[in-house]
Structure formats: structure tokens, C-alpha cells
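in:
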């Protein structure tokens, strides 16, 4: 329990202010006559009446904004009011969509709040408590209802926190209340809450002065905390955003100009270092990509409101991040759960970016109407302007982000369209998972194959480490050993690196392949290769091949969204059994020596939440070149049809049978369309005339070839 209370003289605020500013003339005059309490009153009057952009809701349109969120954002408003009512009772449950670490069990403090409380050994709960996002809910509840209970809870809790949590002598990350990341987030949340509650009589001149003193302490603390690690970490961005907001909302501080300049420099530097050339954040987690993005957007919005010009290169980089998010998103508008990420809807962020940059394509990815959070940010004028901004279809469907190692295949932008996301990029630090060659698959309105999420960040929970392992992803392993060694919540030892990524996109197909070096350090090195071919708009063809000198067991892992999964004996065909939703059939091409099983597992679609799911594992023993091939065939709700799949022999043009270690072919028969496809995969790059093969009387030359037979005609396409 944090019981020590420090005594803060509100009069100390005057030493922090530039009293030569004309706006503070009455404050200065009162001080010159030794009327310190009157000076506090004048400061309070000035701060709560100033016309700083973004500091208060437009009084003449406030009721229109309230009416709008009541009419169009009822669910979000209900969640905000519920949170505000709980916080009045000192009950805390972190449930907002972009709360980084949500909680499931409410915690109530019957007496004073213990700001260092750690339930169930999860320190992230204490960190969330000290970020004070829930005070924004109190502020909005007060702005909507005018009830002083909300303002009283805010003022009492804020003063209690200030009194019981003195700033450390130097920046530290060993504190539950004063880690630098919390300090940065607090600044933004305090300022936002203050802007809604500033008219309450409970925000007294004395309390406002104490708040300013604490915000100044936060600013100094953040200004001194920047290191080389912060330049590469999302922490540096979140902290800089808080410092920038403090500098701009309180230009009366003598340090404000210095903080503003520091912030501008740090924003440019963190964006340059952390955002890769294709617009994706280097930490390889959509959640943290989006946390960084929203902080950058906040800074651009605030700078524009105050007539400041941030670097054009910086703003372009931020817009590029938002475009990457648009293409990253699944047809249901949710981000992949790559790395330490949750199953979050990103339309609010695209709405924000679309309106801020006046970008019609980003507007397409956002909400049809401005959502709750953005309505509060931009006011009713923004709501009306967003309505007038025309949405424009993105220029591409499938997209590669080769620099960061992300590849997206899709058939369109409707929620029923087909989508596959493939990852072949670097680990991304502590928030990364052992997920090289992982893919997500979504079709006909449903997640079918998915990442399992993160669950939590506590080492005392074995599941945290398990969900980071290779086998917890839709990828491959060798001899039951992961290609990247996970040591604890944030650390790795042996880290696999991506190799050999290739991407081809065409209106009729998409193709991606990738490998990694995760098993090359073994005494008998193993070289995995994953190839995925999308025949639009029907199905994917998956080929996993492995090369080694000695015998190993090679395994594929498939993790399904919650629902029933079954595998047939003999054929080893694996099917989901969703009665009213889309389904997936996994159809092995050859089953000789192939083992398959389905087991029960868990999935974590948000922090601290677990749900049951099922997963399938296919395994094959062998040496030399060994391959496992499947057709991945999604079915819309109610469809029972699955194509027929069989292996096809391959011959050289000179007549000799080609060994499977060199090349293989698969026939896929669609009786209802009177059509069949043959896909030929060469495990060795064709390099001589002898590698010109004959398949079903068709001579070909290529590494990946598609032969389509329909309407009595055969069409040959060399894909690679």
C-alpha cells in the first residue's frame, strides 16, 4: 500500500511559468503584491477560459456532438458510461478496445486506491491502473451529463495519485507507477480528461496548480529519459507523444519551447528508425504498430491545430503506416494476431488517418460514419466533414511488404472475400513470436486458420511462453523442435532469420514462398521451404518441403478458430464443421507415410482471455527432399462440396519417370464445374533440357506450373 503522502505547495507552480507572457499579466500582478492565492485564482481563470485549439469542446456545438454519439455510437457510449460509473465506485476493469492489456476480473478498492496493486502476479494490471485511460471516461461522462459525481471522482483520484506517487529522482523502469511509458500515456490521458472537466467547480485553483506541477514533473522526467533504446522502442514514441502534448497544451511553462523542440526531433527520429521502408513497424506486432500509429496521428493533429509544421517526411511516413494497416487488415476489418497482438478492429484508426490526411483510400477502410472516439477528437465539424469525404477503393487487392516480410492475398474488399496473410520477416524483438512462415486464412466471413494470440506477459503462466513457440503457429517444425528458441516472456536465444522470400501477384493467382535458417546450425542441417499458391478465387495450394541428409520428422501445424474440427481416417482430410458459417477443407495430396491428428488447444483473442479451439498436425518422416502438399479449400456457409485431389506422375520429355524428390504434380478435380487443375511443383530449379517435363501429355518447363483443363481446352500458365 502506498501510504506516504507528500506535501505539495500549489504556489510552487509560479516558478514554472513564464510570467512575462501577456496572457499571465494578472497572475504576475497578483504575485507582485504578494497575493499568492489570488494569483492561483487568476491562473485558474485564465487556464479554464483560454481559447487554445483542442482544449475544450465547442460550446455552441457541444449538444450536437452529444446527440450524435447517443444516436450513432450507442454501444461505445454505454461502455464509457459503465466504466465511468465503476470508476466512481473505485472499481477498475480495463475493457476499452485499445487498452493494451485488458482485464477480465474487476478490482474494487473499498477505501483508498492502492496504486501499486498487482492482482494474480500480473504487473501489467498495475501498469494499466497507472495509465489513467479510465479518467477520460469520467471526463466524457461529466461533459455529457453535467453530474459532479464524475468530476469529484476524477479530482479526488487525481489528487490522491499526485500526493502518493512522487516523481523518482531519475527515470526508472523498476517502478509500478513511474515507468516512462506510463508517464507518457498519463500526460495524454490527464490532458484529455482535464479538457472535459475544467468547468467543474471541484477543479479548484489549488488542485489545478498541483496538476500543473505534476505535469511539469512528468515533462522533465520524459525529457531526461530518452536513450538509444527509446529510439528503437515503441516506448520512445508513446513517451514523446505525452511530452509533445504537455508542451503544446501548456505553453505557459518556461520549459515548453524546449520540450516542443525535443519532441519534434524525437518524433522524426523514432519514425525514421522504427518504421521500415514499407511502412510497417519493426516490432512485427500489429497491436504495437497501431499504438505507435495513433500516437503519431495525435501529434500531427495537435501540431496542425496549433499552427505547427512537422516534417513532411515524418507525416508521409505516418500516412504510409496507415496504408499498410489498410492492406494488413482482414476482410472483417480486424488486424492479424501476429506477435503480441489481439483480435482488434482497426476501423477507428483508419477513420482517424483518413480524415486527418483527407485520404479517400484510408476513408474507405474506416467507418461509414465517424466513430465515438474520433467524434470527440474532431467535434461535430469533423463528423460532418467526414460524411462529405468520398471513399475510394484501394488500387490493389493483394500486396507484398517485402522489406518487413508481410504478404497479403485477397479477392476483394467485401467481408465475404477470401484472404490469406503470410509472414516471412524478422522476429521484431520482445513482442515477436517464433512465427516464420506462419499464415492466417479467412474466407466467407470467418477466420479459418489463425494465430493464437499472446494471452498475457507473465512468466508465472507457462502459456505465455507456449504461445510464442513455433508449434503455436501455422508453420512447420522439425523433430518437434522450434526454429527459434523462446527463453521467457521477452527473450530468445537461437533466433531464426528469414531467407529466400519470393512474391508474384497476377489477376488470376498469387504466389509466395519463403524459408529460414532456423535449422542450419544443426549437425545435420535442415532447409525448410514453404510455397503457397492462390488460384483465385477458389483455393490455395500449400507445399512444404524439407531438405536434409539424415532422417527427421517434419511437421505442419494448423490452428483453427473456435469450432469443431474433424480428420478422416485413411484420407487424413481435415474439415471444420461450422453449421452456419464458412468451413475449410485441408486435402492432403499424398498420404503414404503421412501421419495426422487433431487435438484440443486454446486461443487468446485478447489479453487475459482464453477460449478453447482445436489444432491439426501433419507429420512425415524422411531424408533427402521430403514434401507435404495440401489443397486448402474454403467453403461458404452451407456448401458441402470439396474437390477431388490426387497425385499425378511426371515424366521427362525423354520418357523417364521423375522422382518425387525432384518434382511432383497434383490433380484437383471440380466435377460441378467440369474442370480440373494440375499443379506441378519442382523441388529442384529446372536447369537443363531434361527438366522439361511431361504431365498428362502436356510438356512444360518451369518451377511452378498450372495446367487448367476446361471446355475441352488446356491452358498452361508458368507461375515461376
Amino acid at each position: 500500500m502506498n501510504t506516504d503522502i507528500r506535501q505539495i505547495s500549489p504556489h510552487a507552480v509560479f516558478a514554472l511559468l513564464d510570467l512575462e507572457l501577456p496572457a499571465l499579466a494578472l497572475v504576475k500582478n497578483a504575485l507582485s503584491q504578494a497575493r499568492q492565492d489570488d494569483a492561483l485564482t487568476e491562473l485558474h481563470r485564465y487556464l479554464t477560459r483560454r481559447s487554445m485549439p483542442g482544449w475544450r469542446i465547442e460550446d455552441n456545438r457541444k449538444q450536437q456532438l452529444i446527440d450524435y454519439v447517443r444516436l450513432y455510437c450507442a454501444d461505445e457510449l454505454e461502455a464509457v458510461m459503465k466504466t465511468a460509473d465503476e470508476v466512481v465506485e473505485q472499481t477498475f476493469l480495463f475493457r476499452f478496445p485499445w487498452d493494451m492489456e485488458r482485464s477480465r476480473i474487476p478490482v474494487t478498492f473499498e477505501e483508498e486506491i492502492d496504486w501499486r496493486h498487482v492482482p494474480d502476479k500480473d504487473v501489467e494490471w498495475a501498469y494499466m491502473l497507472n495509465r489513467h485511460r479510465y479518467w477520460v471516461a469520467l471526463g466524457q461522462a461529466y461533459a455529457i451529463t453535467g453530474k459532479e459525481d464524475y468530476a469529484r471522482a476524477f479530482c479526488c483520484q487525481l489528487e490522491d495519485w499526485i500526493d502518493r506517487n512522487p516523481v523518482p529522482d531519475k527515470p526508472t523502469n523498476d517502478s509500478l507507477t513511474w515507468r516512462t511509458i506510463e508517464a507518457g500515456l498519463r500526460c495524454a490521458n490527464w490532458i484529455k480528461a482535464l479538457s472535459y472537466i475544467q468547468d467543474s467547480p471541484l477543479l479548484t485553483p489549488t488542485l489545478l496548480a498541483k496538476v500543473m506541477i505534476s505535469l511539469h514533473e512528468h515533462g522533465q522526467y520524459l525529457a531526461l529519459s530518452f536513450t538509444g533504446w527509446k529510439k528503437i522502442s515503441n516506448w520512445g514514441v508513446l513517451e514523446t507523444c505525452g511530452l509533445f502534448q504537455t508542451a503544446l497544451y501548456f505553453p505557459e511553462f518556461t520549459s515548453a519551447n524546449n520540450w516542443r523542440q525535443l519532441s519534434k526531433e524525437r518524433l522524426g527520429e523514432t519514425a525514421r528508425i522504427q518504421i521500415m521502408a514499407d511502412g510497417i513497424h519493426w516490432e512485427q506486432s500489429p497491436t504495437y504498430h497501431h499504438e505507435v500509429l495513433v500516437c503519431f496521428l495525435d501529434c500531427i493533429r495537435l501540431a496542425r491545430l496549433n499552427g505547427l509544421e512537422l516534417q513532411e517526411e515524418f507525416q508521409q511516413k505516418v500516412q504510409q503506416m496507415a496504408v499498410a494497416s489498410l492492406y494488413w487488415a482482414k476482410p472483417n476489418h480486424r488486424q492479424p494476431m501476429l506477435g503480441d497482438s489481439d483480435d482488434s478492429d482497426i476501423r477507428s484508426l483508419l477513420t482517424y488517418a483518413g480524415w486527418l490526411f483527407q485520404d479517400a483510400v484510408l476513408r474507405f477502410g474506416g467507418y461509414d460514419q465517424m466513430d465515438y472516439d474520433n467524434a470527440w477528437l474532431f467535434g461535430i465539424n469533423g463528423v460532418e466533414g467526414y460524411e462529405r469525404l468520398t471513399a475510394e477503393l484501394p488500387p490493389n487487392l493483394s500486396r507484398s511488404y517485402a522489406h518487413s516480410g508481410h504478404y497479403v492475398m485477397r479477392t476483394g474488399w467485401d467481408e465475404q472475400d477470401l484472404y490469406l496473410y503470410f509472414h516471412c520477416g524478422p522476429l521484431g524483438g520482445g513482442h515477436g513470436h517464433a512465427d516464420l512462415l506462419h499464415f492466417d486464412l479467412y474466407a466467407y466471413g470467418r477466420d479459418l486458420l489463425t494465430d493464437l494470440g499472446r494471452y498475457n506477459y507473465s512468466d508465472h503462466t507457462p502459456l505465455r511462453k507456449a504461445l510464442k513457440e513455433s508449434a503455436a503457429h501455422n508453420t512447420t517444425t522439425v523433430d518437434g523442435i522450434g526454429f527459434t528458441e523462446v527463453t521467457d516472456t521477452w527473450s530468445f536465444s537461437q533466433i531464426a532469420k528469414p531467407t529466400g522470400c519470393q512474391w508474384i501477384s497476377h489477376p488470376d493467382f498469387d504466389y509466395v514462398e519463403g524459408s529460414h535458417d532456423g535449422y542450419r546450425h544443426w549437425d545435420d542441417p535442415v532447409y525448410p521451404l514453404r510455397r503457397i499458391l492462390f488460384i483465385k478465387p477458389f483455393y490455395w495450394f500449400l507445399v512444404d518441403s524439407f531438405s536434409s541428409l539424415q532422417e527427421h520428422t517434419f511437421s505442419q501445424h494448423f490452428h483453427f478458430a473456435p469450432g469443431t474440427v474433424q480428420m478422416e481416417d485413411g484420407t487424413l482430410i481435415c474439415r471444420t464443421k461450422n453449421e452456419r458459417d464458412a468451413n475449410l477443407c485441408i486435402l492432403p495430396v499424398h498420404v503414404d507415410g503421412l501421419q495426422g491428428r487433431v487435438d484440443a488447444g486454446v486461443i487468446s483473442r485478447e489479453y487475459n482471455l482464453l477460449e478453447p479451439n482445436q489444432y491439426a498436425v501433419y507429420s512425415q518422416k524422411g531424408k533427402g527432399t521430403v514434401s507435404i502438399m495440401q489443397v486448402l479449400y474454403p467453403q461458404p456457409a452451407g456448401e458441402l462440396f470439396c474437390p477431388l485431389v490426387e497425385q499425378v506422375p511426371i515424366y521427362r520429355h525423354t520418357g523417364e519417370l521423375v522422382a518425387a524428390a525432384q518434382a511432383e504434380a497434383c490433380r484437383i478435380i471440380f466435377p460441378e464445374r467440369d474442370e480440373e487443375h494440375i499443379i506441378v511443383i519442382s523441388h529442384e530449379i529446372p536447369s537443363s533440357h531434361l527438366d522439361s517435363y511431361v504431365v498428362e501429355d502436356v510438356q512444360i518447363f518451369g518451377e511452378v506450373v498450372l495446367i487448367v483443363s476446361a471446355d475441352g481446352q488446356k491452358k498452361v500458365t508458368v507461375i515461376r
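note: Residues 70 and 77 are 7 Å apart (CA to CA).
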